[in-house]
Amino acid sequence: MGFTITNKVPPPASNKGEVNNVAIKCMHQFNACYVYNRGSDSEGYVLDPRIDFLIITVPVTDRIIQGLIGVNLTYMQMDESEPDWVTFNKSHLPKKAKGYYQKYTHGVKINSLPGLAVIQAKPNSDTHNFLKLTIVPSRWTASDVDKFWSYLSEVTGTTIDADYILEFGNIRRIDWAIDYLNVDISDFLLQKYSKHKRKSISYYGTEGGVETHYIGPNGQKLSPQNFKAYIYDKKASAIEKGHALEFGELLHMRLEIRLNKTNLGKVTMKSLMILSGKVKNRFLPYKLTDFFAANPEGVGAQWHMFGDSCKVRGVDGALNLLSKDERSTFKEALENAQQICWKPDKLWQSTRYHLKHILGKK
To answer: What is the mean pLDDT of the chain?
Structure first.
C-alpha cells in the first residue's frame, strides 16, 4: 500500500460539518499522478487513471486458427467440472454495459479473476472481428494479468498473446477511472464543454450530500448505459455493496469517463499506448472543480454556498445572483479551482501506465 494512515497530518477539508480525523500521507512509490493543496493544510491526491472497463475486438483471418479457437472454447463451455470458467451470457455484464452485448457463438467467462474477464469468438455478423475480449481490470494484480494472458494463450493455441493484441486490437469501449483521495464529493462540480445542451442527474445520500452526479449524452434518454461521465462517492458505494474499502477509512471520490466507438473513432491498442497524434485527449472536454482548492479572500462561507448554487442553478445562474464585483471575483476563483484540481493533460499522459500493466509490460 502506497499510502500510510496517520493522525499527524491535518484532516481533510470538508463542508459536511463533521471532521474526519484520519488523513493520509503520500509515499513516493504509490501511483499518485499529482497532489494539490485544498487549503487548511489539506491535500488532495489524484491517482493515475485506471481502466475500469475495456472491450477489444481482434481480427483473426487464418481459418486454421479460427477453427482452433472455436474448438477450444467449445471444450471449455462443455467442461462443467472446471470451476475456473463458465459459459458467458449477457447476465454476466454489469448493468452499465448491457447495451454492448454482441452475440458471439462461443464465449467463456473466467471466474478466477476479479472484476470481469470474457473471451468470445465467432460472431454472428461478418461486420465484427472474430475475437472479442471484455475485461474489468481495475483491480488486477500482476498475477491476475499473467493468468488472463495464460488463458488467452490456451484458447488460441499460443497464437495470440499480449503483443498481438497490442498490435492489432481495436478498442470498442474503454472506461477510465480516476480516483481522488482525501476529498469529499460534496465539494466538487463536474461539467463538460459542449455546444450541445445535455441533461445531468444527481443522487443525494441519506445525510443530504451529493453521492453521485451523472452527465448524460446529447439528446438521448438518460440511462445507466449511456452516461458519458460521472463522479461518485466510491467509499459510500463500496459500503452499500458490501465490498472491501480499497483505501480504508479515507475519503474516496471517483471520476469515470466512458469512451465508445462513437467518441473514440478508430483507436487501436497500439495508438493508445503511444498516444500518437491521432489520439486526442479525451479528458479535455471535461471540467472538474474542487471548491476547497480556491477560496477567495474575505468571502468565507459564501464561496461554498456559491458552489452549491452552481450545482442547482448552473454556473451562469449562480454567477448572475452576484453583484458585478462579486461576479468577477467568483468567476476568477472558479477557474483557479478548476486548474488546481483538474489537470487533463497530465492525466491523459498517465493513462499508458495502467495499459502497460494489463498488457504485462514494464
So the answer is: 83
